[in-house]
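Q: Here's a chain of 353 amino acids. Please give me its 3D structure as tokens.
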Amino acid sequence: MFVSDPLIATPGPTEIPPHRILLAMARRTTNPDLDPEFFRHYDEARSMLAEILGTKSGNVIVWVGEAMSGLEAAVANLVGSGGDKVAVLSNGIFGDAFADLLRAYGGVPIIHKVEYTKVLDPDKVTSFLRNEARDARVVTMVHCETPSGTLNDLREMARAVKSEGKLLIVDAVSSIGGVEINVGWGGVDILIGGSQKVLNLPSGLTILAVSDEAWETMKRTNYKGGFYLNIRLWRDVVEKMEFPYTHSEPLINGLLESLKMIHEEGGLDNVYRRHRAVARGGVVRAVEAVNLRLIPELEVFASPTVTAFYIPNGLSDVKVIETARRYGVFIAGSWGPLKGRVLRIGTWDIRHP
């Protein structure tokens, strides 16, 4: 890191390693629509992401657009018009946001909501899906709720949803690359990630992992609401050597470099261990040392990618953030009911060569 540069310690966007990822994005570009080498790089990145997500490369898509485009696309492509009921599992702002997206596309959200400082309980979710949401065929949830730093148990939630024969959409924007994820754990049908969190890239890429069952469902729902968010257009882009629209060569170059850096750590277990060490052995212990209260209170429910903690009475979150910024450090406040009460630190660890 250059001495004059600020330290970006927010949950996202995160610090970009300057000696590898920034340089990778600065390489001379060609024309991604015509260059066979670009398609090879895209496919290589897709294969490396498939390894991280526990799926096959043909089910991984990377497109240009902030991760919100992926969340909206998942809803638009799996939820048909005409009042389809969808089970929304929420323990935070981004869980709640799925309900807004559903309403925009004519869906009817049936909401199972828990406190923002707690996590989803698989047994209670199972009961909800069997009763209040028995008519829903699609379920939405968030893996890591960054406003509270909570991490839902994706493996158990996927099993609960699949035991009821429903499709599962997962927002993994703040966890992909920093927490173990396997879309084959009982069944995740569309998982959405983004470039600007753990992967240490600028905002601008959406990562989608799509199950075979989701592909088949999308044929039946036959999304006709637009072009840009039509997931089916991306089904065979490598084989056809044709993207629906012009891709971003600098961002794909940066993504490939980020994934190579992960690979060079000697296995995904080392990557996940690094995030736990930075979070629990570093930031969490420092917060506890000055007697600040963490969210969630049980460490087992805390995400290794972001640490959230309450501000002492009498202090302003805005004042603390502004003071930190004057010293060259960017940290974040929170949103919704936690706004003004909580500060957050992204617990990534910048990866130098």
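Q: Can you summarize the key feature?
A: Residues 268-289 form the longest helix (22 residues).
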